[in-house]
Amino acid sequence: MDGKAWCRKIIPSRSCVKDTSANGSVLPRNEHPRKRSAHKPPTMEIKLDAIDRRILQLLQADGKRKIKEIAHELQMTNTPVFERIKRLEKDGFIRGYTALIDRAKLGFMLTVFCAVNLEQHHKAYLDQFEADIRELPEVAACYHLAGMFDYLLKVYVKDMADYQFFITQKLASLANIGRVQSSFVMTEVKEESVLPID
Predict the structure, then answer these.
(1) What is the pLDDT of residues 7-30, one digit of tens each?
(2) Angle CA(25)–CA(30)–CA(34) in degrees, nearest 5?
(3) Is residue 158 part of a domain?
(4) How many domains does the chain contain in total?
(5) pLDDT digit string (tens) for 28-71?
(6) pTM, entire model
(7) By three-state DSSP, how is residue 87 classified?
(8) d(CA 35, CA 38)
(9) Angle, CA of 139, 154 and 60, to the nearest 5°
(10) What is the extent of the structural domain holding 62?
(11) Separation between Cα atoms, residue 166 and residue 186, nearest integer Å
């Protein structure tokens, strides 16, 4: 055996390492079997057929609609309709059932869109702001934006005095608040919770 061949036998390649955990194949050194990244399998997209979509349309229009009524509308029996609704709930297409309350009848006459800029934008600050906003009952919706402002809040209050209290005593007390700009709704032209399901 010459010296060159002897060196090849006992000195491992700089670019390879032996995989003794599986089938003994040679792997690149930066792909040691214990350090391989685990790739998650692709998420399976849940398909809805025409009947599923029609059920969602009917429940959007009236969440109190009975199984019997939906089955009659679809010309089906009750059991398969019930099973489809349960599957839609389990798969997250139906998140819940709620009542739509007339805000004006309860005295909530003022709707305000409140745009907020934060001073610091590290993830910890964003997480804290979002957690704090979730605890404010006046905030009906909160959106994280890309653009001139960081967040847009939809606020329901009874009058301007209530909104002033919300701004000065609640929102302003939160950490990391920078700039706030308020836009007051004069007329609500359209507000729908119904999605355009084809």
Answers:
(1) 344 344 444 434 444 444 444 444
(2) 65
(3) yes
(4) 3
(5) 444 444 444 445 555 567 889 999 999 999 999 999 999 999 99
(6) 0.72
(7) helix
(8) 9
(9) 95
(10) 50-90
(11) 19
